[in-house]
Structure formats: structure tokens, C-alpha cells
Amino acid sequence: MPDAINVAGEFKVDLAEIITVDGSILDLTNKVVNIVIFEDIENPYLTGNISFIDDHNVQNLMPLIGQELLKLKIRTPSMKRPNEIIESLFYIKSLATSLEINQNKKIISFEFISLEGMENRRKTLHRTLTGTFSSMVETILRSDLKSTKDFYVDPTMGVKKIVATDISPIFLINSFVQQSISEKFGSPTYVFFETLEGFHFRSLESLYKEDAVMDYTSETESGFVERKKGYANVLTELQKIRKLTLNNSSDHLNDITGGAYASNVITHDIFNKSYSQTGYHYFNSFEKEKHINYFNNRGQQWPIFSAVAIDDNKSTASDRPVKTFLRPVSFSNVPSRKDAHYTNSSGKANYNGYDPDSWITKRTSMMNNFQGIEANIVVDGHTAVRAGEMVNLIIPSNAQKKQIKENQTDRFFRGAFLIRNIMHDFTVDDTGNKHTIEMSCVADCVEELIPGTEKNPVPKIYGKSNKQNPITINVATD
Hints:
Elements: E1 12-19, E2 25-27, E3 32-40, E4 47-54, H1 58-61, E5 69-75, E6 85-102, E7 105-114, H2 115-121, E8 125-131, H3 133-144, E9 151-153, E10 160-167, H4 169-179, E11 190-195, E12 198-203, H5 204-208, E13 212-217, H6 234-239, E14 241-248, H7 252-258, E15 262-269, E16 274-281, H8 282-286, H9 292-295, E17 323-329, E18 331-333, E19 338-339, H10 360-369, E20 373-380, E21 390-396, E22 409-429, E23 432-443
Parallel strand pairs: 9-12, 13-21, 15-17
Antiparallel strand pairs: 1-2, 1-5, 3-4, 3-22, 4-7, 5-6, 6-7, 8-10, 11-12, 14-20, 15-16, 18-19, 20-23, 21-22, 22-23
Helix pairs in contact: 3-4
């Protein structure tokens, strides 16, 4: 078949064109050396770079100055559906490198960014917006960033009134991200990001509930499998992990001070002349929340931390909140949380006020922990996988032969994972086209409880670190 995929990682550049500042078209389709595209659920727009052969001195003759447009269409052979094809328009923002090969040839590299990323730098907002945070994000995307891309949204709770004064669209959207609460999931875990399919304003739960798009495994050495009769199973090859780095990204010291275990918020109501304090406890709240395994792996979700005692009173790390937020609020009606700043002629408030009690402590913990377990993998690529999608990882334990159960997988790195970021790397050389994907896959819970003793495990007496009768020595005496 002429358009069938024969080798894992194969790709085709159907189109690579630069539109210059005078409207001329420079066709690079057959001159591409490398294309890299980055997606990240913590980054609001796409970035990347392209390298191509310049054998006609087009950099000077066109000229190319770093203000051009780039059209790309890349696909994996046999993939024909729109969501399986990369077809995007970018702004070229700068010249990265120019490498001279000989007198008649050099390789030019340009960095590019999505159209909305460039539009964001050219505009500031000076107006009032009303509605839910999700509806305001859509308004900003369509009216201010002029985006015609698809928008994937998880609707938010509460009607707000926001006055934007000399602020960039993305900066304002990021402020909405912090405060948004999902209408469906009741969770303040929003992220705003762009993929090759469009923009997303979604809670982590709305990402977790999606079906896995791929299964990846490292069951065999280096991810390679023996070929049968000289032919490889392309789907099997696409599922094999070529390079694997496992990382438990929790830092206990930073987790304590950063609010991953617990935090408090003290709010001062300047309208009612009162204050209140609320808090978040990681272990007490965990069962009530919807973590990644709630939607996957038969719902077996357990904390990524141990509730081990840290003192003789059986306290855990969540029982000692170190981080405290201080925030002003103004409610005309405390139970309904209506904003006292905006009232009608009869004195009735119509908009929900700034309410950090409802999101700040929980979001601090959940956004600290959503990447608590991280696997960085490199695989043969195809053009249908995106950041923000779900994948299944099957990573064997190095000690599986010593375990009671045969073929036991790693207790931390198995099951459903979220693609936090992804780098598509398309390389053309003398050996052919090769598409590789490097991605960070993360999870915020485990399938089995991590046990922890209720008795303080710190020895009462041990060496010079913990003496029964320590003394104070005055070194200034004669």
C-alpha cells in the first residue's frame, strides 16, 4: 500500500511553507532537516523550532528576518482523520542558528510560536468582563486573541465581574485558572494550555476521565522485540519504551512548606468587619476527591505519601500545617458569597465574590501533587498523541523475580498516567524520516496503600544525633 506505515516512527511532511513579510511563499517541504513541537499542560501556547537547508541564500534574498509565518502539515502514514494529522499555522519569532555547511549550503533554524502567543504580546485588555470564568476565557480567546481553533472547556461555577486594566489576555486567563471551580467535579484544579488540536481550559479531573490513547511498556530490554520472519509489528513497536527515566518528584522538605500536606487560609471580610480561618488536610480529604485512579484502575486510589507519625502524639505531616495564606474578601451576603463591591440600585449583589476559602488550600495541595509520580519516556512517534491525554504504563519491577507474584509490575509506575508535556521530534537524514516522542507522564496516587506506623519511628536515643542527656558546651571559656 502506498500510504501504509512500514516502520514505527515513520512520518511524512506534506507541507512546510514560510510566508514572508511581503507575502511571498517559500516552499521548504523537501528541505526540512528537523521540526520540533512542544506541548505542555502548564504552558498556554505551542512553541517549537524548524531547521531546513538553505542552498539558494534565501535567508538574504527573501529576506528572512524572524517575522514570517510558518505553515506545517505532518502526518504518520495511514493516519487520515483530522485529529491524527498535525496541520497548524505558526509565527516565526526569531532566528535560532545559522550553520554553514559549505560555500553554497547552510542549515537555518528558526523558533516559532502559535499565533495566539504572538497576539497576546501585542495586546492588553482595558474593559469589564462578566460571566463564569470559563465563558470569559472563551470570550478572550475569540475576541482578543482572535483564535479560530477548537476550544475544549470544563464549565465553571459562579458568575463573576472582572475589571481588566492594562493586562495581557493570557495573564488574565491565568488568574482565572487559579480561582476556577469545576461545575461538574467541584474541584479547583484548572489548567489552561494549547495542543495541536486547540485550546483547553479544564480541571485535572476532566482530563483524568478520558480513555487512554496508548499503552506503553518496557517489558523487554530497551523496548525492542524480536521480529518474526523479518517483519516488525508496527503497533507493538509503537508501544515500546525506548528510553525510560523514573522519578518520584516529591521533595518532603518543599512539600511541607509548599502546602502539599496541609495549609490554612485566613480571610478578612472588610465589608462585615470579620475574619475566618479554614484549612486543608491531605489525608483526611483524599478519599473524598477524584484522583487519577478514581476514573481508572478500578478506582484503587491511595495517597502518594505515607501517614507515618511524626511525633509521639500520632500526628502526621498534614496535622501540622505550616503554610498560611492571608486574603481580604468582601461579601454582602456571607452564606451566598456574593460580592459586596457590585450591587444594584436596591442593594442586591449579583456576582460571586473573591472566595479563596473555596479553592486556595485545596488547589495548592492538588497542583503540588498531581505530578508526584513521574515517568519520562521516549518512544517511536505518531502524530495522534497530545499533551493532556491519558496513557497506560506497564513498567516491570526490577525485583520481580524475587517477589511472590510472578511478572509483578512496579507499584508506583503502572496503570493510568497523564501526559503533562510532550515533545514531537521529526528528523530527516540520509537514513530516512524518524519521528520520536519524548513525554513526561504523571500520576497523583497509587493503587496500594503505602503503610505508615502510628508510632513515631525516630529512635529515642541514637548516637550523637539523639542523646538522652545532651549538654551545652561554652567554647569561649579558658
